[in-house]
Amino acid sequence: PGSANATAVAAPLSCATMNPLTLATQRLHSDGGLRSGEQMAAALGVTRATVWNAMREAESLGLEVQRLRGQGYRLAASPAWLDANRITAALGAGGARFQVQVAEAVDSTNTRLLAAAAAGAPTGSVLAAELQTGGRGRRGRAWTSGLGSSLTFSLLWRFEQGAAGLSGLSLAVGVAVAQALAAAGASGIGLKWPNDILFQGRKRGGILVELQG
Predict the structure, then answer these.
(1) Regarding predicted confidence, which is higher, 188 or 139?
(2) Residues with Cβ within 8 Å of residue 41, at least 6 apart in sequence
(3) For the whole model, what pTM was predicted?
């Protein structure tokens, strides 16, 4: 398949399980500093009650929020929020083959990308999400990623051969992920057939390959 020019898109995709303002309030704390409810409300153009509800929801989604009386809120550890432009830039020359889109919250990146594929999305389309609430694991198990605590994404790739020619694709993807992690400095990376990524003997990730003819 032909390659396309890289584009980076910040997409306001969302699902009913997260208030759109929840992520906005957390991005205000990217520098690790303290901010009062009044400051956040003014920055976002909402009420202090709305900020309070957003901070409570952030806690329910796995973020550790610290409250200091008379000073405000801050995150115990500031997540590295996803940025489509930075991701594309980090891909270097190879970035021309991918179109990166970052969503705030989705049910499943695979489900969304399969729908996009059916609508004609090009090879190299990538969808990453800050929060995934309805991912699918092995044997139908749920795969949920917490807000700002994991890297969840799907990649669309079109192949000319049929499904029979892709029987080893899951293992090949696993090997590629393991090699990429090792190149980034991680040691003790392993694979457990068919789709588990191990770090020092414990599962740290999974791969779900879905085919659509």
Answers:
(1) 188
(2) 47, 48, 50, 51
(3) 0.77
